Structure formats: C-alpha cells, structure tokens
Amino acid sequence: MIVILRALGLGDLATAVPALRALRAHHPDERLVLLAPDWLAPLVPLIGGIDHLVDTDDLSHLRWRGAAPDLAVNLHGRGPQSHRLLAGTRPHRQLAFANPIAGHHDGPPWLADEHEVHRWCRLLDWYGVPTDPTDLGLRRPAPDRTPIGVTVLHPGSKIAGKRWPVRRFAAVARQLSAAGHEIVITGDTTECGLARRVARLAGLPGRTVRAGHTDLRYLATLVAHARLLISGDTGIAHLATAYRTPSVVLFGPNPPSRWGPPPDRPWHRALWAGGGDLPGWDGTGAHPMLTAVDVDQVLVAVDEVQRAVRTTGAVAA
C-alpha cells in the first residue's frame, strides 16, 4: 500500500495529477490511498488510479488506523508538519523533500519559485519514479443535463486579493454576451452574492448564475464542455487546463510561472502585471497586480485564445 498526502484544494490536487499518475504507473500492483479533503472525492474518479480516499483536511487531526504502508509520499509541502503526519502512519519508506527539522534527511531540496506541477514531478524523479509533467488531463464526464458550449465566468476566490473587481467582470460579461456568448457565472456557496452582482451589473438574467448550485462533479463537467473560461488564479482554472478548454486567467499576486497553464498552449492566456512599478497593497480588495489588468486586455486575450483554437486545430469541447 502507498499513502499519498495532498490535503489541500482543487487546484492543488489538479497540479499533482502527473505525480499521482507516475506513482500509479511505477507501482501498478500497489493500493494507492490519497489523504485529501472529502469534498474533493468527485475528482478522484476523473484522475483514475486512486483506490481510496481518506478524509484529511487538517494535518493535526489525522488518526491513521490502517496497516503500516510500504510507502508514504508527501505531495503536500516541505514539512515539518506534513512529514511528521506521514511518519505517523509508520511507513517502511517515505518520499519527501529534505527537512532535517522533521528528521527527514533524504530527498531533494525545496525550491520556492518552482512551478507546482514540476515541483512534485522533480520530487519523484529524484527518487527514481519517472514522471510526465504534461500528463494533466482528467477524464471527461458525459454532459448529461449540463449546458454545452457556454462561457464560464468565475469571479470568486477564497483569497480576496485574487478577486478581479466585480465591475470589470460585469463589463466583460456584458460585451461577451452581446457578441453571442452564453454566459454562466459560477462560485461556491459563499460567493452567491458576488456572482449575482456580476450578473446584475452586466444586465444578465438570474438564470446565468450557478454559484452555490454546482458540486465539484458538475463544475468539472461544465468546464469540460465549455467554450471558454475566464477566472482568477483559483481551482477552476486548473480544470480548464485539464480539459484543454480555452481560458483567460488573471494572476496576482502569485505569478503564472508558479501556478499557470502550460505556456506552450496558445488557447490558454495568463494575464500578469508583475515586474513593474505598482502601488502598495494594504491587504484589502484586489491585489494591485490584478487591478493593473483592465477590461480591454481581457477581451483581447479572449480574441487571442479563440483565434488559437481556429488556427491550431485545438477544439473547444
């Protein structure tokens, strides 16, 4: 049995897919157990190769009652807390970044500015597990009653600094709707008011708002069969990467070099205003790197990704 720790969010799990697939391929006969929050369970069958999920959303409260695993793999962080949690499962061997504080002297060094996908692939490569960082795809669910060919706007984020201003989202929604896009606005249950405000300012009917009414399986299906996604740097953007759905993703304060879509795919555009002189940030509202991106830049990026779909042969679902 192999126990794998990734007790984080949607984007975190999506960026670990190549590493998870590599472990499955390298250990075809082992049982793979993923330690992750239970709300991510609908994503597990779309990844494939994971045999069981153990609900783990707090590193201080895991009570491992299973047999000692042959291997424990830390795809969660640099330690020491995550290292010690896995050590508590009594594994015969642990794969993790070197962390002397946690008593783990094996493994490669942690690199702070590394892309999240390459970080975990490098870890496994160091231990002799071959990886493919481009293996980001998820199984595509059948649409059933999910709308096909819509343009998804996702204005929310758990981190306030990553939320592009509502009026700008509304301006984009208004212009795309006028150009013939069928708009759907998504968000979790805490973002219903935000999504409704975008719709109201854009002059769109209430039925365009799906915030609070989409579980993870529905959200994945919606993005898998969408025409386009526009969002901030948050979990749903990684679903667009997984399904090769054209996307425009607004970054700040974290750069796309750490969390962005593959740069060789022209149907994904990462908008980033870093590197220049920006005003200071007091910790409230959108980060200046986001507010430096205007509506016209987003609309130009939309045209660019749609042109890329036509000229490269890439097909939106």
CA(first)-CA(last) distance:
37 Å
The number of distinct helices, counting runs of at least 4 residues, comes to 12
Kindly report the spatial arrangement of strands forming the biggest sheet. Answer: 3-2-1-4-5
User: What portion of residues is helical?
Assistant: 25-40%
Order of helices and strands: EHHEHEEHEHEHEHHEHEHEHH
Global outline: globular
Largest β sheet strand count, sense and barrel closure: 5 strands, parallel
Report the radius of gyration as a whole number of Å.
Answer: 20 Å
Q: Which structural class is indicated by helix and strand composition?
A: alpha/beta
Weakly predicted, low-confidence segments: none
What is the number of E strands?
10
Tell me the β content: 5-15%
Overall pLDDT, averaged? 93
Write a short abstract of this structure.
This protein has 317 residues and is of the alpha/beta class. Helices cover 33% and strands 13% of the residues.
Give an account of the 3D structure.
By secondary structure, this protein is of the alpha/beta class. Helices cover 33% and strands 13% of the residues. It is built from twelve helices and ten strands. The strands form two sheets. It has a five-stranded parallel sheet with strand order 3-2-1-4-5, sandwiched between helices. A five-stranded parallel sheet has the order 7-6-8-9-10, sandwiched between helices. α6 packs across α12 (295-312) and α8 (216-224) packs across α9 (235-242). The protein is globular, with a radius of gyration of 20 Å. The model has no long low-confidence stretch (mean pLDDT 93).
